[in-house]
Amino acid sequence: MPSDLPKTMKALVAYDKGDYRFESAYPVPECGDDDIIIKTEGCGICAGDLKCYQGNSTWGDETHAKWVRPPFIPGHEFLGHIVKKGRNVTEYELGERIIADQIVPCGKCKFCKSGRYWMCQPHATFGFQKENNGGMAEYVRYPKTAVLHRVPEDLPLEKALLIEPYSCSKHAVDRAGITIEDVVVVSGAGTLGLGMITYIRQMNPAKLIVLDMRDERLAKAKEFGADIVINSGKEDALQLISDLTEGYGCDIYIEAAGHPSSVVQGLQMVRKLGTFVEFGVFAEATTVDWTLVGDNKELNVLGSHLSPYCYPYVIENIANGTLKTDGLVERYFQLEDWEKAFDYATGKYGDFKIAFKF
């Protein structure tokens, strides 16, 4: 692998919400003594990328501080090969294929020092801040504190691109604490929901039920291990779950759709003393009946953020086929066609995951 890099590269650059621009001569990142530069192999488009482009709360609103720091290069579902490394980097060699957690922990705050690095207080992340540009570019810099993982060279790109989203899926499921006695409902059968489904299948719960409003997604959910699928746009999902559980409701509800109606539905659907896990990213504020959460049901309401300690399991089990991946990444775009790629990434043409290939 050459250590001398070009001066410029192709990149998608975010200047403001709704103001993303393809640039053919953006500066290639510099490599400091503790840094690694990869040549990007591919980068998936996340729902979070779409909602950021559309102007969600990461840009700041009445309840959220501005989190993005433009101009930045989007993309956090990426991997590549090392083409340059700083003189202090000894653990990795040129040519190795690597991927990183989305979070770039500081290593100094109370969360990092206690092993909870994914909630790092400064909260630097790839793909939303100019200090840590993302994978929608030909080259990416991994700084010293990036949490890196090797990726098998023989793992096909369409599978490797699912490492980051599936790791997020695994963390959400782990938060739920599923047992073999639980009736589990997953709301949303997009890529991340499907990652949850194939992982939950390994736990063999009493029932794994999946809700979505698209029949093609429900068919894939069934293929990936769901026992029962329900089109909540055509059927009364609340009544069906009640009937299946003798009127009690499901034990665990994992919200992976990122829509207010899915939240309201889940809080109604889960039984007393049940567990509700919120995973979805929202484009708008969501209001819930907190009396239902507290006085009526005494629910365990849990959030899920990023993918701590999940990559090794996910890489191994995608590679050995335990985690199903077939048919999720089938369409690639060139970076120049980013507007078309973002349009396809909405899923309105039937795709699960859209990615850029370099």
TrEMBL record:
PANTHER family: L-THREONINE 3-DEHYDROGENASE (PTHR43401). This is Erythritol/L-threitol dehydrogenase. Keywords: Oxidoreductase. GO terms for molecular function: oxidoreductase activity. Gene3D superfamilies: Medium-chain alcohol dehydrogenases, catalytic domain, NAD(P)-binding Rossmann-like Domain. The keyword Oxidoreductase applies. InterPro entries: ADH-like_C, ADH-like_N, GroES-like_sf, NAD(P)-bd_dom_sf, Zn_alcohol_dh. Residues 32-152 form the Alcohol dehydrogenase-like N-terminal domain. Residues 192-319 form the Alcohol dehydrogenase-like C-terminal domain.
